[in-house]
Amino acid sequence: MAKKALVTGAAGFIGFYICKDLLESGYEVIGLDNINAYYDVNLKYARLAQLGIDKQAAAEFNAMSHSSHYGNRFGFVRMNLEDRTELPTLFKNYKFDVVINMAAQAGVRYSLENPMAYVDSNVVGFVNLLECCRHADVKRLIYASSSSVYGNSDEVPFTTQQQVDYPISLYAATKKSNELMAYTYSHLYNIQTIGLRFFTVYGPWGRPDMAMFLFTDAILNDKPVKVFNNGDLSRDFTYIDDIVKGILLIVEDDDAAEKYQLFNIGNSKPVQLLEFIEEIEKATGRPAQKIMMPMQPGDVNQTWADIEDLRKKYGYNPDFSVKEGVQHFVEWYKEYYKEV
Q: Which of 19, 141, 220, 245 maximizes the CB count within 10 A of its CB?
């Protein structure tokens, strides 16, 4: 019998790819997302359309719609993670073998403007999910943490053994709280929780608030590119296919002996921001008009993942170079927006 997975954040960038890969691997999948307006909802509906979910059906809250591509093997429901009535009902109706939580209020800078959105989704929503796993006897929860928990640490590469007690944004603080709560539920209720600290994920269908999208959009539309901290930043840019491949390795390995696990998932090859922009210039064939800006509140100088633990435990090995990844993204962007 096919295994059942719940993927939250299914209309989001990473969640969409996870649904696709699980379905192609023979899983039955329920996707959940509240389709909030933090960024263009049309992109979210377009991702769902790739999975065979009708926009009109997807727009209705708390109503299950099924895929025209995958039939009853894929259902989608629009729902808030913090809904204490509907979420437990969903868990009661579907016996999930694994829950993959990619739902969160994303973005470091937006957490300065709208902190309560982060508390609702990332804290209240996450506890609600843990409670549902507990009461529905779900034994495995894989969830998204973030490299932002490392704050402005200059101990590089970042390892999961480092102290992460100094988050410099509320977003980072909510992700750290997820790790702590997951530990508690693993300890008290015998649920295997596996936290993944993501490092700057990019690729086709990526988020419009992320550097890859913002830079490409600006360059192709002859708009200036804002370069923060005068370009003196580096990021461990990780291509989406590498991320999803890593998650699938974890899902497939259902050894539940070690209850609480925490890993970095990145490329482990940090790239200077100006070098990244240079790759986009090459891929688009156009020069960037750069505006040098000061450091943004909540931003960090560098990220660099030590991925040795994930490599040893699950055989994770990222393949994509930034050059390849940027090329794929630019091709997708031009096709999606029909740019010349």
A: 19
